[in-house]
Specification:
The structure is a homodimer. Chain A is globular and about 60 Å long. Chain A is of the alpha/beta class. Chain A has an eleven-stranded mixed beta sheet, with helices on both faces.
C-alpha cells in the first residue's frame, strides 16, 4: 500500500481547498494508494462531511500548529514541532509515507526537503523543476526554476541526469531528449556557464548517462520539437516560468481559450517537484484551488509509484 | 534635410522586400526626410518602376557588392569595400546620412557600428535592444537582447541611462520607469549580477540619472505595469525575446488573433536598435518583409529626428 501525505493546512485557501482537492484526487488514485491528511482534525472532518465524503477514505494525522507565510521558514520548521509540515516531513523521513505535498510555506517545504529528507548522496544541489506544456501536446520538464542561481556547470550537468530520470519515470517519456537552454544552437554559443555546461553534458551524453541533444533556444521551450528536459540556471528558469505566467494572464484577460494556453494554468501543472532529495516532495502554488491541489496530489502519487527517489539514488550511487 | 540610409541589398528577400518597404515608408516620413537606397542601381530602378514609384523619390547610392550571410562579418566588411553595408557605414560615419538600417548580415552591421561609427565615449559596451509590446498598449524597451552576455553591473547600469534616453526621445515616454529584470521584487533577490546592478542603479536613480523603479519580474515584462525600460543581461534578454517569438508562432498556428499578439510580430517591431554608438543604426530581421522594412525605416527616422545619438553623447560626456 502506497501512502501519500498532504498538508491540509497549506495554501491561501486551506484547509478547504486542500481537503476538497484531496477528495477530488480520490477518484483518480488507485485502490492501492492511501492519502494521509496532516492538519486540524476537526476542521478536516467538517469539510469532508460537507463534501459528503466518508472520513474513512483518508487517514487523518492530527496536528495543532501551522507554519504561516510570515514565519521564518527554518525557525518555524524547528519550533513548531506539531505543525502539519514538520510532522509530515517526519513521516516522510521515516518512510511512513512515500511522498509529501503542500501548498503552504515554500521556505518551510525546502527546509524539510534539505534537512529532514536530505539531498541524495552525490547530488551537489537539489533542484526545483516545473512541468511545462508544449504545443506538441507532450509535457516538458524545465529545471532549475529558481532554487539555484549562479549554478556551476557541474550542478547543471547533474540536472540532466535528474531531469532525464524524472521525464522517463514520471512523465512516461521514453529516452527523453535533454538540452541546455542557450542563446544559439551552435555549441560555441552562450555565456561562460552554458558553454561549459554544454561541454560537460555532451561528455555525459556520450557516456550514456542521458540522451543529450545539445542546445535549445527559448523559442523552442514550448514547441516540444527539440527537447523533453530543459536544463538552465535558476535565474533563467525562473524568468521563463514567470514570463509564461504573465503571458498566460494577459491571454486570459484577452479571452484566449485553447488547450495549449489552458494547460499553462498553474492549476493544471501539479506543483513544483523538489528533485534530488531522498523522497518525493511537491510544492504547490500558495493560491492553489482544489483543482490545483488535486493535480499536485496526482503528481506526488506518480513520483511515489515510479519510485523516483529510488531511481535517482541508483543513478548517483553507481 | 534629414537623410536616412537603407541597405537595399540586406535580408533574405532583398532587394525586392527592401525597396518595396522603402516605398511603403515614403508616405509616412515627413517631406524633410530623404531616403538613400544603397545597392544595385539597375535592380533598384527596376523594382521602383514595377511599383510605379518615381525613382526621384529616393537617392540611389550605387554599390556593386553584397555582404552575404555566409561571409565572415569583419573580413567582408573590410574586403568588400563597395558593399552596400560598408558604403552605408562610410556615409553614416561621415555624417552624410543621420541613420542607417539593414536587414542584412547582423555581424557586419555590428562591425560597422563598432568600428566605423564607433561607441560613444564613456559607453563601456554598446547594446542591442528590442521594443516590445505591452498589454497596456504602450511599448517597453528591453536591453540587452543578446550582444553582451556575462555583463558587469557597471555595463547594465549604463543601459539604464541609454534605455531611459531612448524611451523618452524615440518612444515618446515621459520620465520612463527603469527597472532591472530580476527573480524577485525585493532588492535582496537575484543572482550576484542583478543584486550588484540593483545597488548601482539605485544610486544612479537617486542621483537623478533616470527614474529607477527597482526590480521587475518577468511576469510583468509584457504587462506594462511596472517599467518602460527593462535592463538585463544579454543572455536573459535574448531568452525573453526568443521565448516571445516562439509563443507568437504557437499562437499564430492556433489562430490567436488580437492586437497584443499581433504587435509581437517581428514585422511590427521595427528592427533592433544598436544603442551607445555615435549614430543611429538599426538591424532588421533577416527574413524581413516589406512591412518589416517599412517599420525599420520609420524607427531609424525617429532615432535621427530625435537626435538620439546627440542626447546619448551629452549624457555620457557630462
Amino acid at each position: 500500500m502506497l501512502k501519500i501525505g498532504i498538508d491540509a493546512m497549506g495554501g491561501d485557501f486551506a484547509p478547504e481547498a486542500a481537503v476538497k482537492g484531496a477528495v477530488m484526487a480520490l477518484g483518480e488514485v488507485g485502490a492501492d494508494c492511501r492519502i494521509l491528511l496532516f492538519g486540524d482534525r476537526e476542521r478536516i472532518l467538517a469539510i469532508l462531511a460537507a463534501e459528503g465524503c466518508p472520513a474513512e477514505k483518508f487517514d487523518i494525522v492530527a496536528t495543532t500548529e501551522v507554519i504561516e507565510m510570515g514565519d521564518h521558514p527554518a525557525k518555524a520548521f524547528q519550533s513548531k514541532t506539531d505543525s502539519s509540515i514538520t510532522v509530515g516531513f517526519g513521516y516522510l523521513a521515516k518512510g511512513v509515507i512515500q511522498g509529501f505535498a503542500s501548498a503552504g510555506s515554500t521556505g518551510a517545504m525546502m527546509v524539510g526537503s534539505m534537512y529532514a529528507v536530505k539531498p541524495i548522496e552525490g547530488v551537489i544541489r537539489p533542484t526545483i523543476s516545473s512541468v511545462v506544456p508544449t504545443a506538441s501536446g507532450r509535457p516538458a520538464l524545465l529545471l532549475d526554476v529558481g532554487l539555484n542561481v549562479d549554478c556551476k556547470p557541474e550542478v547543471l550537468a547533474q540536472y540532466g541526469v535528474i531531469g532525464s530520470i524524472y521525464a522517463e519515470a514520471v512523465l512516461g517519456i521514453a529516452e527523453p531528449r535533454v538540452a541546455v537552454l542557450n542563446i544559439g544552437e551552435e555549441e560555441t554559443k552562450g555565456n561562460a556557464q552554458t558553454k561549459a555546461t554544454h561541454e560537460l553534458m555532451k561528455a555525459e551524453g556520450d557516456a550514456g548517462k542521458f540522451r543529450f541533444v545539445g542546445n535549445i533556444e527559448a523559442s523552442h521551450i514550448f514547441s516540444g520539437k527539440v527537447a523533453d528536459v530543459i536544463v538552465c540556471d535558476g535565474f533563467v528558469g525562473n524568468t521563463v516560468l514567470k514570463m509564461a505566467e504573465g503571458l498566460y494572464r494577459i491571454n486570459k484577460a484577452l479571452g484566449v481559450d485553447n488547450p495549449f494556453w489552458n494547460s499553462m494554468n498553474y492549476e493544471m501543472v501539479g506543483g513544483t517537484p523538489v528533485l534530488g532529495v531522498n523522497a518525493p516532495v511537491i510544492i504547490g502554488h500558495g493560491c492553489s484551488t482544489p483543482l490545483a491541489i488535486k493535480n499536485m496530489i496526482l503528481s506526488t502519487v506518480r513520483c511515489a509509484e515510479a519510485d523516483l527517489a529510488g531511481k535517482l539514488k541508483s543513478a548517483f550511487n553507481n
